[in-house]
Design a protein that fits this description.
- The chain is of the alpha+beta class.
- The chain has one domain: Gcn5-related N-acetyltransferase (GNAT) (Aminopeptidase, 3-Layer(aba) Sandwich).
- Helix content is about 30%, strand content about 25%.
- The chain has 4 helices and 9 strands, in the order ββααβββαβαβββ.
- A 5-stranded antiparallel beta sheet has the order 1-2-3-4-5, sandwiched between helices. Strands 6, 7, 8 and 9 form a 4-stranded antiparallel beta sheet that branches.
- α1 crosses α2.
- The longest helix is centred in the N-terminal third of the chain and has 18 residues.
- The radius of gyration is 16 Å and the shape is globular.
Length: about 180
């Protein structure tokens, strides 16, 4: 399954994606809101897990390619929540690319993933979450018309107490009420 926008292709991963993906995962700006940078080995292992998800479910975190240049720029897509959380079981929409890609790419890729989730895949709800101070990611969630209820914010139990990244803001979108933003 591939998804297309006017400028982006969301596709399965290729071996040539691994080196730019490793650079992305080793970039302190990109990984600011994650517990640590990833080594090349850790980045390749993540790509392997993402691809295994496609083999298992037929969908996942698509490699994000600029259609005009064919260049890999990150990922966007869907992933089951696999850790203990008050809102689990759930499917998360997520993304990772350099901030230079900006709001346009995030909106386009996010809309394609949400439309697929609620359309072709027939999912009833999506969640997204991040550290409260990650204003860029939260802005993407809001542009995608996900709703935030502060009462649902949670501590990410995979991070130790006192870790500044432990608290997360939770956003939700329901297939029954979601509609794509205009424009």
């Amino acid at each position: 399954m591939e998804l297309c926008t006017d400028r982006l292709l969301l596709r399965r991963w290729r071996p040539t994606d691994r080196a730019p993906f490793a650079r992305l995962n080793a970039d302190p700006e990109v990984m600011r809101w994650f517990p640590s940078l990833l080594s090349r080995q850790e980045s390749d292992a993540l790509a392997d897990r993402i691809e295994a998800g496609f083999d298992e479910r037929g969908w996942g975190l698509w490699a994000l390619e600029q259609r005009a240049s064919g260049r890999f720029i990150g990922f966007a897509g869907l992933s089951p929540v696999t850790f203990d959380a008050p809102f689990a079981p759930a499917v998360e929409i997520g993304w990772r690319w350099h901030a230079r890609r900006g709001a346009t790419a995030s909106r386009r890729a996010g809309l394609a993933a949400v439309a697929c989730a609620f359309g072709e895949l027939g999912l009833s709800e999506l969640v997204s979450f991040t550290v409260p101070d990650n204003v860029r990611s939260r802005a993407v969630m809001e542009r995608l018309r996900f709703a935030h209820d502060p009462a649902e914010d949670f501590d990410h139990l995979q991070l130790p107490p006192g870790d500044p990244l432990r608290r997360h803001a939770l956003y939700r979108a329901s297939a029954a009420t979601w509609r794509a933003p205009a424009g």
